[in-house]
Write a structure and sequence with these properties.
With 210 residues, the chain is an all-alpha fold. The protein is globular and about 45 Å long. 81% of the residues lie in helices and 0% in strands. The longest helix is centred in the C-terminal third of the chain and has 31 residues, at 146-176.
């Protein structure tokens, strides 16, 4: 079952990378090059993970190889969000933007407390906190008035999908802590994670500013 799920994930990531690469060559904008790079890193990380399972029949002994690729994907998504936020008119960030930061920090402490790598937790949760911060700021700015909505309306869906991605990723990590008790919950969030990447691609495709 695990091999099937991971192969589905690989197929989704290959599709996302292929389509984003085609789009990047077509529009030749910096955000699309960044986004395609992120999908590419995710695809390579997933390919290593799937290949290891197919050959050895178990998950990789060295997680950091895939972790580096996944962290790079998070970083590239963050870079696209920052590019979108730069185009906003100067406005003070909404206090709600700090909610993902606080949640990520609390979960980071929890993950470290149960024995996960300190470096991996700090890097991954730090990136999730940053993505969540800029995503909430983008959504809030787009809803802040007619002028703001006109300026940022094309990026609102992308920012909202980035926020959904953060929520799903954090839920997936938390569910992995209880995988032996509730494996179905982890699988559910895994499927949601594949869908969120496809959603990121779809929302970016519709945006005129990416």
């Amino acid at each position: 079952m695990e091999a099937i799920i991971e192969n589905i994930a690989l197929a989704v990531f290959i599709l996302c990378f292929g389509l984003s690469l085609v789009r990047a060559f077509k529009v030749r904008t910096r955000p699309w090059v960044i986004l395609a790079s992120g999908f590419g890193c995710n695809m390579l990380a997933q390919a290593y993970w799937v290949g290891y399972i197919m050959v050895f029949g178990e998950t990789p002994a060295y997680f950091y190889i895939s972790d580096i690729g996944w962290a790079a994907d998070f970083l590239f998504i963050l870079m696209v969000l920052i590019e979108c936020n730069i185009k906003l008119s100067p406005t003070p960030p909404t206090p709600a933007a700090w909610i993902p930061v606080v949640i990520s920090a609390v979960l980071c402490v929890y993950y470290i407390a149960i024995g996960n790598s300190v470096v991996a937790c700090v890097v991954d949760n730090g990136l999730m906190a940053s993505i969540g911060y800029f995503a909430v700021r983008g959504v809030a700015h787009a809803s802040g008035g007619k002028e703001a909505s006109r300026q940022f309306r094309n990026n609102r869906a992308f920012a909202a999908m980035c926020l959904a991605f953060v929520v799903i990723e954090l839920c997936l990590w938390t569910a992995s802590c209880f995988y032996s008790e509730v494996p179905a919950l982890y699988d559910l969030f895994n499927y949601a994670l594949f869908a969120s990447h496809a959603g990121l691609l779809a929302c970016a495709w519709r945006s005129e500013d990416i």
